[in-house]
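Tip: read the tokens left to right.
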């Protein structure tokens, strides 16, 4: 384990150095992400202006919801976004090289690249939280601050696990980009709105089958004091959901690697 961590740090260092060679591309990428998120937040503002609120969620609460997602999204985008490149690596035969090296294939995949544009997402999340905090008067106890940090990490891991599962499908199908793309678009859509504005069965789907509601909605319900006493306990489940999903993703990955016999290229 320690050896893999050291190797991952070395691979990550090399990936960062390679990205730093293109400083202009870095700045343009981050600025474009900031503009895109500004547009998304503006659209939320327009909707709330027209409808006053969304099932009791005002503009500041919606911005908190969005900011919480952006913080976890930023970490995920920087370090784990490229997991979805697995399909291309298998099609091109690049993944075969990972299997003959005395290093974990997954560690090699993780250290393959960094997505610097995720910094833009993280900045939007941090600045958004700083803006909404005085409006929401978030007088949290130290326990809620710890829970807040845990939720950011859990949201990151949930996104990693979902992406990992979708990418690992290509061990059986060779192609998984379509599944990854659909899941990604659905996840992005769900993080911009409170789940309780949708129907009951849809809420069940995003809670039990594709649990993206645990990325930011259920943590926000707790952190904003919108949960009733009788149903608070299970809404603290984001950390447990992230761990369960990671175990499922790791299981599928291991089975896929053992099944993999090359793409023929």
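Filled-in amino acids:
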């Amino acid at each position: 384990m320690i050896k893999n961590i050291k190797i991952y740090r070395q691979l990550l260092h090399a990936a960062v150095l390679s990205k730093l060679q293109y400083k202009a591309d870095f700045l343009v990428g981050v600025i474009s992400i900031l503009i895109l998120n500004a547009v998304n937040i503006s659209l939320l503002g327009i909707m709330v202006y027209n409808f006053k609120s969304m099932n009791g969620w005002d503009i500041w609460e919606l911005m908190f919801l969005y900011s919480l997602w952006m913080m976890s999204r930023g970490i995920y985008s920087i370090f784990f976004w490229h997991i979805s490149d697995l399909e291309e690596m298998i099609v091109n035969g690049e993944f075969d090289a990972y299997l003959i090296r005395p290093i974990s294939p997954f560690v090699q995949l993780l250290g393959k690249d960094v997505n610097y544009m995720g910094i833009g997402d993280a900045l939007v999340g941090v600045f958004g939280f700083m803006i909404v905090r005085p409006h929401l008067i978030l007088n949290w106890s130290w326990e809620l601050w710890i829970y807040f940090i845990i939720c950011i990490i859990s949201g990151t891991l949930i996104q990693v696990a979902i992406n990992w599962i979708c990418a690992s499908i290509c061990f059986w199908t060779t192609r998984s980009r379509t599944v990854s793309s659909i899941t990604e678009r659905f996840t992005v859509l769900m993080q911009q709105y409170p789940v309780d504005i949708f129907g009951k069965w849809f809420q069940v789907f995003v809670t039990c089958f594709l649990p993206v509601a645990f990325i930011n909605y259920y943590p926000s319900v707790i952190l904003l004091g919108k949960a009733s006493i009788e149903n608070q306990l299970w809404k603290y489940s984001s950390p447990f959901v992230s761990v369960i999903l990671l175990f499922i993703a790791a299981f599928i990955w291991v089975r896929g690697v053992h099944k993999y016999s090359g793409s023929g290229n």
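The two ends are 32 Å apart (CA to CA). The chain has a mean pLDDT of 82.
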